[in-house]
Amino acid sequence: MLGMDSMLSHRRTRSALLLGCCLLLGACGFQLRGVADLPPVMARTYVQIADRYSEFGRGLERKLRANNVQVVSEPQQASAILDIMEARFVREAASFSGDALISELRLTYRVAFRLLDVDGKPLSGRNEVVLFRDYSFDSSAVLASQSEEEFLREDLESSMSTEVIIRLEALELERS
Fold it and tell me: Bridge partners of 113?
């Protein structure tokens, strides 16, 4: 009988802790991301990008569709144009070993964008998002470093599409 009381007490303690965690998360304002509240003008959006088949381009279109935006194939069909003005990677030394050899590299991904109306007039100013990842570099294992960099490029492009959606949600559109 003592074992049964101990199990019930343990369950109650776990339930109380779980309830407390849920209340704390709710009190701090945490909520799962649902559909982004994008500007209504983006209902039908043309994405103007140099490489729409890149991981970033595909991911951005996929995330726009997931947020109830109809991505159109021609600018004439659009109610807004998402102009990706710049999307580029830069690789640079992040740290050096004691004998002045590169020990870490930094991969930076920079994207600049703006939202235009169908006539090409800006609805927003230039927005820029910069993401980076550092990774170890070993000159004796160049192939491993190259494959790690390729993985990081894909990860940065995927993360960037999410960041652009978040920035679009926060846009203060210019009124004409």
Answer: 84, 127
Stretch 89-115: mean pLDDT, rounded? 88
Mean pLDDT of 37-49: 95
Count of CB atoms within 10 A of residue 19's CB?
10
Task: Return the axis-axis angle of helices 55-66 and 142-169, rounded to nearest 10°.
Answer: 30
CA distances from 113 to 80, 117, 161 (A): 13, 13, 12
Facing residues of 135 across strands? 105
The type of residue at 86 is E
pLDDT, tens digit (0-9, with 9 covering 90-100), for 86-100: 999 999 888 888 887
What's the fold here for domain 34-169?
A: Double Stranded RNA Binding Domain (3.30.160)
